[in-house]
Amino acid sequence: MNQNNIKITIFKELRGIIRDKKSLQKLILYPLMIPLVILLFGLLFDNVNESIYNVGINYSLTPEEKEIIKDLKNIKMKEYHNQEEIEKAYHDKKIEGYITKSHNKYTIYTDLTQNSGEIILSLANSYLESYNTILGSHYLTENGIDSTKVYQNIIIDYESLKEEDSNMMTSMIFSLVITYLIMIVVMVCVVVVTDSTSGEKERGTLETILTFPIRSSELVFGKYLATTILAFIVGLISYFLSIPTIYIGKELFKSYEEMVFITNLPSIILVILLIFLTALLSSGICMALSGKAKTYKEAQSSLQFISLLPMIPYFLNVMEVDNSIFDLIPIANCGSLLNDIVMNNVNIQSLLITILTTIIYTIGILIYISKQYKKEETLFS
Amino acid sequence: MIKIENVSKEFEKTSENGKKIKFYADQNISFQVKDGEILGLLGPNGAGKTTLLRMLAGIMKPTSGEIFIHDKTYEENEIELKKNISFLSGNTRLYKDISCIELLKMCAGYYGMDKTIIDNRINEVIKRFDMESFKNQRIGNLSTGQTQRVGVARCILHNPHYYILDEATSGLDIISSQVILDFIKEERKKGKCIIYSTHYMEEAENICNRVVLLNKGEVIAIGTPQEIEKKTNTSNIRDAFFQLIGGKKNESE
What is the DSSP string of A156-196? Predict the structure, then answer.
């Protein structure tokens, strides 16, 4: 292979993408989404955690009830005189739910389709169970029975087997950000490859290039390397943009305070290696699929689903499915492993399988595209 | 010299009922083009001109037959042959996001030109095609005529011996067309071997030494315009063509 031809092709492709306003906008916007998502969700979760829920009641609180509610912090009771008044307040959105009392029966009304409704139900349940215990204790004490023998026969405590990091929602956001890192690499490949293959065919410039003294393998390899380089650079920018943003997020938002995001030297090296491997494989897959497309639009739509591959481990993780099953799925395994690396949860076996399979897949796909782009139906379809 | 021997090109297309049908874009085509000669390739749309030119330029392979350029085939040494050929077609577009200078430098790189002579050669072709005023402009911002001049400039940059020109003046105004026709004549004087495909029969008659008339993938006549006119008892190549295809003037037009 003539290295000069490959070099010229790489330079031509990089220049073409950078000068194309739409493509450039995408390459800039993709990484910028990371700080935006982290900061926005930090703000959102802090607001949710600090939210006070107003709950209407049609009775007066006893001093004991007031003490319990004071301890619950997130709930504020508003007293109303009758059912009508309380229902009107709910419809006017002055309260998010209400509790009615008839003799010794308490009924909790709340909208369980909303997140706030579930929180109110949990808080109200907690308040009423505590109050029930207090009433029971009073009765037993009045009758000369030690209430601790009834309510404290056993003592419940817990120890987490894993280091506690934070709540589930913030973990999911961090995981989503890491998944998005891999998605960015794939999305850059989609943008660059559609333009450099189907785009070139459609614009008629591919035929111009083919008249030059260049082998189709040099042309394909040049395009492939240009895509890999761009995807790798944008992936790196995204990663190095996410590190300070996460640390700023940890400083700014309580929800992120205890989140784990490892940034020591070995983890940084591993993340860079994974971004590179993802770029190598994704550009190959994109080129193979794009070669089959007849138009730019056809290529775009056939490549869209690849961008979703990294999302598979994310969704299955949410469903708590064992993540060792991703080790053989191309691109998805890189996303899964990247998550494990930054969460300090690396499994050496997964690491080796992911690296090895990605290299094997990449070699296979390179052999395939070098043959595919020699065919006239690929070049002139 | 370019020698084409029994060249055929078969394609496959899907019919209306979904079946794949094989058909010949070109069938058993044979002719020669000598150095210092302009050979006109004439025929209506679908006659097989573009496919034939693509095979001549080495970007498509014949299904059967042989193409010899300088007594060598593409199988023998594709890269070396391509270094000596220039292909300009209505289908070969230029990159719109780069300037004329950048395009010419890129082409010089692909042709493996010596770095020490690239700048001088680029300046020469810029002067030759009067591109000084727009040499730094992006190609996408140029007029059709200016773009075509850049296209021709990139074709002659590496000083090839063989020119394969497909509809080189198509869509151009009279002045831009003349620039290109003058250039073709000049190259012939230098002993270059030129294949020139066009829709404009009168244009071909004026500049071509010989013409090949193609219809439905087959050669229907070869000779000087005068020979063909004499053979068909007509006064111009247009009428000769219609005479040869059976007088169906409106159908072919």
Answer: -----SS-----HHHHHHHHHHHHHHHHHHHHHHHHHHHII
For the entire predicted model, the pTM comes to: 0.80
CA distance, residue B249 to nearest chain A CA (Å): 31
Task: Residue B109: list chain A partners with CB under 8 A.
Answer: 4-5, 8
Q: CB of A219 within 8 Å of any CB in chain B?
A: no
Per-residue pLDDT, averaged over A248-258, amounts to: 83
Q: Is the pLDDT of residue B155 over 60?
A: yes
pLDDT digits (tens, 9 = 90+) for A75-106: 899 999 888 899 999 999 899 999 999 888 99
Structure tokens at A356: 């090895």
CA dist., res. B155 & res. B148, Å (int): 11
Report the residue of A212, A223, A378 to disrupt the B interface, i.e. the one with the largest count of B CBs within 10 Å: A212
The full length of chain A comes to 381
Instruction: List the single residue in A with minimal CA-CA distance to B98.
Output: A16
Q: Which residues of B touch A13 (CB under 8 A)?
A: none
Kindly report, residue by residue over A329-343, the tens digit of the pLDDT. Answer: 888 888 888 888 888
**Angle at the Cα of A248 (from A247 to A251), degrees rounded to 5?**
90
Nearest CB among A5, A20, A203 relative to B110 is that of A5
Q: Which residues of B touch A8 (CB under 8 A)?
A: 106, 109-110
CA–chain centroid gap for A291, Å, is: 31
What is the three-state SS of chain B? CEEEEEEEEEEEEECCCCCEEEEEEEEEEEEEECCCCEEEEECCCCCCHHHHHHHHCCCCCCCEEEEEECCECHHHHHHHHHCCEEEEECCCCCCCCCEHHHHHHHHHHHCCCCHHHHHHHHHHHHHHCCCHHHCCCEHHHCCHHHHHHHHHHHHHCCCCCEEEEECCCCCCCHHHHHHHHHHHHHHHHCCCEEEEEECCHHHHHHHCCEEEEEECCEEEEEECHHHHHHHHCCCCHHHHHHHHCCCCHHHHC
The full set of domain ranges for chain A reads: 3-45+167-380, 52-151
- H/E element holding A277? helix A265-290
pLDDT at B252: 43
Which domains, from first to last, does chain B contain?
Answer: 1-81+161-218 (3.40.50.300), 85-159 (no CATH)
Average pLDDT of chain B to the nearest whole number: 88
CA distance B91 to chain A (A): 6
In words, the CATH class of domain A52-151 is alpha beta
Which residues on chain B are in Cβ contact (under 8 Å) with A206? none
E strand map for chain A: 53-57, 75-79, 97-102, 105-110
Could you give the percent of chain A with pLDDT greater than 70?
95
ipTM: 0.87
Alpha-carbon distance A209 to nearest alpha carbon in chain B (angstroms): 8
Q: Is B87 in the A-facing interface, judged by CB distances under 8 Å?
A: yes
